[in-house]
Design a protein that fits this description.
The chain has a domain of about 45 residues. It is α/β, with parallel strands linked by helices. It is built from 22 helices and 14 strands. It is globular, with a radius of gyration of 25 Å. Helix 9 packs parallel to helix 10 and helix 12 crosses helix 13. The protein starts with a helix and ends with a strand. It comes from Neocucurbitaria cava. InterPro entries: F-box-like_dom_sf, F-box_dom.
Length: about 500
């Protein structure tokens, strides 16, 4: 422990960064010595999640931040988890009074204090949230999670009433600028939008990344002209550079994802024509999960989106497409991966530098039965592309590489390729050792680094004990093959 205490703060922060998910270990390190207490606390309080399932934890967070304002300054990322089923829990009266007194001292308008006090007494998370917003001056990322979709509209309406007092632009109210300053620092916002009016409260000048969870919620999933205007206002009046659309909708509602996306990009185009927008979006993440990718409809939907939004996508520099949870049914899987060639028609993205087309979850043995699509990468990829990440259908890595090799001569800036294959196709490394020379040598001549990742779906307990580092990321097992400027043929295939 003496050796640990002698390390500089920069190294301690690097070490503690690996423990960011283990809050118990970090809290214990804070008690070891005063020398490492400060850097450990900095990592411990950087990300906090206020969970509606744990009423006591909710109470402890608010009380800690009230009593220790120096810790509140360390909080950068806040996840605000709303549970509408927790309204029957009552907060301890001793710290509710103290919390309300502290909020009143900040000069909050009386109507906001009354609403906060009412929600606190009823044990509602909206009351706690109002205080948390007021107590976190360094907050940069706000993640709003809502559970129990049946009551989402009601819960978000309750949250809106609190946010209205906090984010109001009427600075004539006493103390309003104090609360508003907290939201003005937020750079990343993750928010569900079955209730669209909630977006109006986040016209934040520093907002750079917007993550919209398009949740299926009764009849509000159809964006009307009024809802489109709301989104347009948010997009055009903020300086967001990264946009994520995350859809959990059912297959029947796939068209609504296009509607929302077109709404947002049309807002960008209109704002650009009117010179209202700040720097345009340069990273677009398009994530479809559950039913929407079962039969390839998500890929076809994205292709339709790309073809219709060419002018708006022309400014994108980083595009990431994630297809979640494919069906294990064989014929549907074939349709999904035959559409990979379609999904990559991105020649209109003139500034695209990084492209990722990923399968976020593992599939069954039927994945190996999928056909090998013939893709003309030279026609589909923009010449500005520098990095490419793809799913490798069927695990047939070598034919896929040969297709890439035959096409990338018209993509002069490409410097890195990463391929993901599944179910042990790359693990039997015979073809790496027999045919390691020609294909990889051709890539090296062009200055392209290749990374091949092979993943297993399920590990037996025996393998888990033998390879304890497996299970990182979204894959259970990882094997890597590297080839590039700084690596030779030695150790092409190995375990991590």
């Amino acid at each position: 422990m003496a050796n640990l205490c002698s390390l500089p703060n920069e190294l301690l922060l690097l070490i503690f960064g690996y423990l960011s998910d283990d809050r118990r270990s970090l809290s214990q390190l804070c008690k070891v010595s005063r020398r490492i207490q400060a850097p450990a606390a900095e990592e411990l309080y950087k990300d906090i999640k206020v969970d509606g399932y744990s009423h006591s934890r909710f109470s402890c967070w608010t009380r800690t931040l009230l009593e220790c304002p120096e810790l509140a300054n360390l909080v950068v990322n806040l996840t605000f988890h709303i549970d509408c089923q927790s309204g029957d829990r009552y907060a301890p009266i001793d710290w509710i009074g103290q919390a309300i007194i502290e909020v009143v001292k900040m000069g909050v308008p009386a109507q906001v204090v009354g609403h906060v006090a009412s929600n606190l007494m009823k044990g509602k998370e909206t009351g706690f949230g109002a205080i948390l917003f007021a107590l976190l001056p360094s907050l940069q990322t706000l993640n709003i999670e809502v559970v129990d979709t049946y009551h989402e509209g009601y819960v978000e309406y309750e949250l809106m009433k609190v946010l209205y007092g906090i984010s109001s632009t009427d600075y004539r109210e006493p103390g309003m600028h104090i609360l508003r300053s907290t939201l003005n620092n937020i750079r990343t916002l993750v928010i569900p939008i079955p209730h669209y009016e909630l977006l109006r409260f986040f016209l934040l000048p520093q907002l750079k990344a917007l993550h919209l969870n398009l949740i299926d919620n009764y009849d509000t999933n159809y964006p009307s002209s009024h809802n489109a205007a709301t989104v347009s206002e948010v997009v055009s009046r903020t300086g967001i550079r990264e946009l994520t659309l995350d859809s959990d909708w059912s297959e029947i509602q796939i068209a609504n994802t296009n509607t929302w996306t077109e709404c947002i990009f049309n807002a960008l185009q209109k704002a650009g024509e009117l010179e209202l927008a700040r720097p345009s979006i340069d990273k677009f993440v398009f994530r479809l999960s559950d039913g929407v990718s079962y039969d390839g409809s998500s890929a076809m939907s994205f292709n339709k989106l790309v073809s219709s939004m060419g002018a708006q996508l022309a400014r994108i520099e980083h595009l990431r497409v994630e297809l979640q949870r494919p069906s294990p049914i064989r014929h549907k899987l074939r349709r999904l991966f035959m559409s990979i060639g379609v999904i990559m028609d991105l020649s209109c993205c003139l500034r695209l530098r990084k492209l990722e087309v990923l399968q976020g979850s593992l599939v069954s043995n039927s994945f190996r039965k999928a056909p090998h699509p013939q893709v003309d990468f030279g026609r589909l990829l923009p010449t500005s592309l520098e990095a490419l990440t793809l799913i490798c259908p069927n695990g047939k890595v070598l034919p896929w590489l040969r297709q890439l090799l035959a096409s990338i001569t018209v993509v002069p800036n490409l410097r890195r390729i990463e391929l993901h294959c599944f179910r042990g196709q790359g693990r039997s490394a015979a073809w790496f050792t027999k045919d390691r020379g020609r294909v990889f040598e051709d890539f090296r001549e062009r200055g392209v680094a290749v990374t091949i990742t092979d993943c297993d779906q399920v590990l037996s307990p025996e393998k888990s004990r033998r390879y304890p580092d497996w299970g990182e990321g979204i894959f259970a097992g990882k094997f890597y093959v590297y080839y590039g400027e700084n690596t030779g043929f030695d150790g092409l295939y190995g375990q991590k």
